[in-house]
Design goal:
Elements: E1 6-11, E2 18-24, E3 29-40, E4 44-51, E5 59-68, E6 71-79, H1 84-105
Antiparallel strand pairs: 1-2, 2-3, 3-4, 4-5, 5-6
């Protein structure tokens, strides 16, 4: 699967702020957005998640960061997904993104 060819982000900070991320591959354009529901700097971020193509299928993402020895432990939970297919697709996407993040900061 080809990687993103273009990536763009817009957001407003803090709880109640909004974000929008768009990217495209050789085959398709994607856009997702939502609202920051909880922001605790350096600890916790909770936000809604809805693709522009299916805004009625809003879900929730929670990211926590905790000290872990000389580093940090990041935990990502994506819940309230529409169905098993959505869960599987998001799992693949998040795992791919987190693997790339790990390589970037290693």
């Amino acid at each position: 699967m080809p990687g993103p060819t273009r990536f763009r982000r817009r957001s407003t900070r803090g709880s109640g702020g909004r974000y929008r991320i768009s990217f495209s591959t050789d085959r398709e354009y994607y856009e997702v957005g939502g609202v920051y529901r909880e922001v605790v700097p350096n600890e916790r971020l909770v936000f809604s998640w809805a693709w522009h193509s299916t805004p009625e299928r809003e879900s929730q993402v929670t990211v926590t960061i905790k000290p872990d020895g000389a580093g940090s432990l990041l935990t990502l939970t994506h819940e309230q997904l529409f169905d098993q297919a959505a869960r599987d697709g998001h799992e693949r996407g998040w795992l791919s993104g987190l693997e790339k993040l790990e390589k970037l900061i290693a």
